[in-house]
Automatic annotation (TrEMBL):
Protein name (database record): Dynamin-type G domain-containing protein
Organism: Rotaria magnacalcarata
Pfam families attached to this UniProt entry: Dynamin_M, Dynamin_N
Taxonomic superkingdom: Eukaryota
Annotated Gene Ontology cellular component terms: membrane; microtubule; mitochondrion
Ranges where the Dynamin-type G domain occurs: 1-154
Molecular functions per Gene Ontology: GTP binding; GTPase activity; microtubule binding
UniProt-listed PANTHER family: DYNAMIN, DYNAMIN RELATED PROTEIN 1, ISOFORM A
GO terms (BP aspect): endocytosis; intracellular distribution of mitochondria; mitochondrial fission; peroxisome fission
Amino acid sequence: TSRQQDSGSVDIIQELIQDYLDRPSTIILAIIQACNDIETSAAIKYAKMFDPDGERTIGVLTKLDLVDRGAEQKLLEVFENKRIPLKHGYLLVKCRTQEDIDNNIELSEALRKEEQFFSKSSKFHSVPLERRGCPSLARFLTRELVRNIKQALPRLISDLRGKISNVEQQFRHLGIDDYTQLLFTDEARSRYLTDKLFTAMQLFRTEIHGVEEGAQVNNPLYSKRNELNREFYSEMHRSKFENSKLIQLIKSAMIATQGPEPADVCFRLEN
C-alpha cells in the first residue's frame, strides 16, 4: 500500500509540474548536477519537451566541485551553449555541501567559499562574474522575472478587461446597473438583491395584468371590463335566460374582458 501511495504521489507531482511547464508564461529553471550526464538529466528532458526551442529555459549547473578530472572541458562546452543551446544560456553555482549544512555554516560564509572556489579553479576562473555564483543567479532571475511580467502585463490587462465586461453584461441582463453594491458587506448585498427581486416581481405582475401599477382607474380597458362585469352581474339577477342565450352572453363578456390569456382557451374549457 505504501508503494502504491508513493507512486500515486509521484504521478500527481509530475502532472502538476507538467501543467506549469506547459504554460507559455512559465520560466523554466533547469537545475542540473554537473557531475552527472547533463544531456540525459530529467531537467533537460522536461525542458526539451515543453520548450523545444529553449526560449523559456535557464540552465543552472551545480555541484561543480564533484566533476571528475578531465570532464571540465565538456562541462564548459555546455556552459558556452555549444551542446544544448538555450536562449538564456547557463549559470554556474556551487551550493553548500552536506557537511556545511551539518556544521551550520552561515550563508555569508558559504557565498565567500563559493567565490573562492571559482577564483582558484583552473577551469572555471574564466567564467564571467555575472554568470557564476548564487548572487549572480539571483540577480539574473530577478531581471528575467521583471522582463517576463512586463511582456505578459498587456495580455493580462486585456483578459481582465474582457472578463469584467462579460460580468457587467451579465449584471445588466439581470437588471443590475450598479453592481458595485454587491461588493460590500453581506447585509448590503442581501438588501440590494432583495430590492432588485421585489422590483422584478412588480415588473412581472405588471406584465401579467397588462396594466401599470396605480393606473387601473385611468385605464380605459380596465374601466370597460369593470362596466361589463357589473352589467353581467345585474342581468344574471334580473332575468332568466335560455341556455343558448346565456352561453352567448358569457362568450361576449369573455371576449370583451380577455387579458393575457386568449379567450378561445376559455371557450374550449366551457365547451
